[in-house]
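Bumping with the actual sequence this time:
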Amino acid sequence: MATLVVAASTLISIKQVSSDQALTVEGQITDRYNAAVANLGNDSQDVRLGGIYALQRIMQDSPRDYATIINVLSAYVRAHAVEPKKDGPGLKQPATDVEAALSVFGNRRPGWGSDGLVIDLTGTYLRGADLSGTNLTNARMTGADLAGADLGPAWRPMHGRTDDPPVKNTDLSAAFLSDVNLDNANLLSANLEDAILENARPRARNTIKKVPS
């Protein structure tokens, strides 16, 4: 009888320790997330970069936070990738911190969080952006200015895969794609309704113009 009591007590203690450890880990992730998000509002670009890469690491460590982090970084890009003032200096390519946030989207792995999550980059100013090898599945880029951007091939093989999956459901409707590099880009099922493709080079493979129903 005494042995059973000791065994039961030990089991309860183990479960309590496991629960405490889980709460500790969750608390640490929350602290890391709060610190990273706070860094996104810093005046220093280096600090903001640190915040972006910290969020990427959290996304890798905690799949449950995947959707939240994607939404935060999408909002960050929309806020920072804006058309420069007409009397200001022109931008040949996005700022380093914007490129870093885009790389987080591009390097996400299948199975992280919700595969159907939309990356909302509507109306962003991404002229000259290097999106080659970027996973743009479910990206919403309606009205984005991608003049001179590099979109090909718009997929980076993962885990040794050599196949070339399409960039599924990318919304490029009304996007400005003048002089964009589509070399070997696979835009199957991409929405290019009303997109401007002037001087795009060369023609992308499997491009389908979806017409709204």
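The tokens above came from a reply further down the thread. The helical segments are 2-40, 45-61, 66-80, 96-106.
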